[in-house]
Amino acid sequence: xxxxxxxxxxxxxxxxxxxxxxxxxxxxxxxxxxxxxxxxxxxxxxxxxxxxxxxxxxxxxxxxxxxxxxxxxxxxxxxxxxxxxxx
Length: 87
Fold this sequence. Notes:
Blueprint: H1 2-11, H2 54-57, H3 63-81
């Protein structure tokens, strides 16, 4: 992955910034089914700690709606664990 990021930086200058924490890769998938999740927590009804989101989980149509679904899930996860985090 490190080599691939450096190669991509040759075509997309700035892609491999030295201060970057993580590079996300966009993938495309569609699920003919929907993985059930709790409406309030967005967590799977069958697997604790699994958050089915976006197209792969059956909750979005394309990249924008998948992104919004991911943001909403991230907010739920943060609110779940925030009380346990102290700085």
